[in-house]
Amino acid sequence: MGTSSSARSGAGAAGFSEDERAAMRQRAAELKREASRGRRDKAAAEELDVLAKIAEMEPSDRALAERVHAIVTANAPELSPKLWYGQPAYARKGKVVCFFRSGHADKQPYSTFSFTAEANLAAGRGLWPTSYGVTELGDEAADTIAALVRSAIS
Prior knowledge:
Blueprint: H1 5-8, H2 18-36, H3 38-56, H4 59-75, E1 80-84, E2 87-92, E3 95-101, E4 111-115, E5 131-134, H5 139-152
Antiparallel strand pairs: 1-2, 2-3, 3-4, 4-5
Helix pairs in contact: 3-4, 4-5
């Protein structure tokens, strides 16, 4: 008959081995340190994650994502950049308001810039778009995104 995993680890009938308990204590201490760094450090780390993800994109998507990032952060500084399903997103109080999806990552001929139900776009409207296909961002398109983002957080 085989040996149980707890017996192999030296835990016996008592549960976890001393090494396993030490590893759990160490991980708990790491989590406490991370939590004590505060919200500001977490926000900075999340923005770095977004910028790193943008840097990994195909050149055409990278240019779009960089411009979207600049537009959103300039027009809605209260939104926090974060990754959402592995793509750049912008959240208020932890809830995503808008996000960019790479066309190359989705194997689509265009990228998208979209809004979630957290965005304030429906005010008094029976029909409104929540997602936009993006292949280039000229000044007019950039102005449209800026206005939509400002509306989304109003």
